[in-house]
């Protein structure tokens, strides 16, 4: 098993699971307890708690204390870092795609000339 150590890898690893993404989507609406987060899923509360631990390790959520409960809260700082990484790489690939399109467009007149001969 590969040990993931850097924060961005932890974030993307946590986001790779659809249940964890659904939990984050729910927490985007506001804080929630483990029971509230477990309601829409056909899984045990323990299974949801394991997903929450992964999200906590990636620092995508935190738990606060309110009387007897420990509601979960979305932490957007790590999501912002992941979005910045994606945007930076999207721009690199978009630039490369644009240059390839320009190069192919420049080749077309030559192709047309060669076909005419």
UniProtKB/TrEMBL annotation:
Pfam families: HTH_20. Residues 1-94 form the HTH arsR-type domain. PANTHER family: SLL0088 PROTEIN, TRANSCRIPTIONAL REGULATORY PROTEIN. CDD domains: HTH_ARSR. GO terms for molecular function: DNA-binding transcription factor activity. InterPro entries: ArsR-like_HTH, HTH_ArsR_DNA-bd_dom, WH-like_DNA-bd_sf, WH_DNA-bd_sf. This is Winged helix-turn-helix transcriptional regulator. SMART domains: HTH_ARSR. SUPFAM superfamilies: Winged helix' DNA-binding domain (SSF46785). It comes from the Bacteria. It comes from Amycolatopsis acidiphila.
